[in-house]
Amino acid sequence: MFALAVLLSSLFIYNSSGVIDENAINEISAILKLDNFINVSGQGNDADALSYYTPKLVWVLRDFNYDLTDAKGRPIKPNDYFESALNDLGMSSQTSDTNRKIRNCLIKYFKERECVTLATPAQSAYLKKINSMPEEALDQEFQRNLIGLREKITAKVSAKQLRGVNLNSRMFFAMLSNYIDSLNNNKVPNLALAWDSLIENECQEALENAIELYEIALKQFFLNRDDPQPAEDLYHIFKNIRDSALENFTRTTA
């Protein structure tokens, strides 16, 4: 499911509670098997190739009520805190080899990444009924954090892309079907084959549309003509209709 979520997302939002410590890092250990469930080219994976297909990452820290400072006590931004938690500054002698690998995977696979903090939404006495509380009754800092998160998501989210091409709804559904069929048949989703399948489907759709336009144009022409047409005129008319259909095909598949 983790691999499928990564494959389908243009913006991957992961959330955890509190600070990014060893427990928080270990909870995202599924990333270690990411390349086992995604095949980029059919010839194995490398981190750079896989990172080309992974989405933007936003790590949301819930119930975060801490002052963010560096080793010298200077205020830092959530992104700075995130990066320090991923690199050597976030490790200690007790950091396991597994957690080191997880950090490396986060750095390698998610080239574009950010961190957002959310304060606790209400005092502990009100948390049991938090779901029934109106938003304006929540903690003021939490409300500001939430507005910031919404704005960031709105600014960062984009159409899902495959090989740099924005996918329309038909292409996205075809990609999803391809991945699910692979998983249901105990196969690893192959991005190269998925791309070839998308292109084939789009070209077939464009071809059928072009043929339909060509036939409609021919019917309209002959319905409005009772008198015989010179062969040369028919040649130019058919050529214009054909060129228009081909132009539509080329524009659709460009």
SSE order, as H and E?
Answer: HEHHEHHEHEEHHH
Rounded to an integer, what's the Rg over CA atoms?
27 Å
* Residue fraction in strands: 5-15%
Average pLDDT rating: 85
Query: What strand order characterises the main sheet?
Result: 1-2-3
Give the CA-CA distance, first to last residue: 33 Å
The stretches of 5 or more residues where confidence is low (pLDDT under 50) are: none
* Category by helix and strand content: mainly alpha
- Structure summary, number of beta strands: 5
**How much helicity do the residues have?**
40-55%
What does this structure look like?
With 254 residues, the protein is mainly alpha-helical. Helix content is 50%, strand content 9%. It contains 9 helices and 5 strands. The strands form 2 sheets. A 3-stranded parallel β-sheet has the order 1-2-3. It has a two-stranded antiparallel sheet with strand order 4-5.
SSE arrangement:
Layout: H1 2-8, E1 11-17, H2 22-26, H3 47-51, E2 56-62, H4 78-86, H5 97-109, E3 113-117, H6 140-156, E4 161-162, E5 165-166, H7 169-184, H8 191-223, H9 231-253
Helix pairs in contact: 7-8, 8-9
Quick summary:
The chain contains nine helices and five strands. It has 254 residues and is mainly α.
Describe the structure using short key phrases.
single chain, 254 residues, mainly alpha, 3-stranded parallel β-sheet, two-stranded antiparallel ribbon, 9 helices, elongated
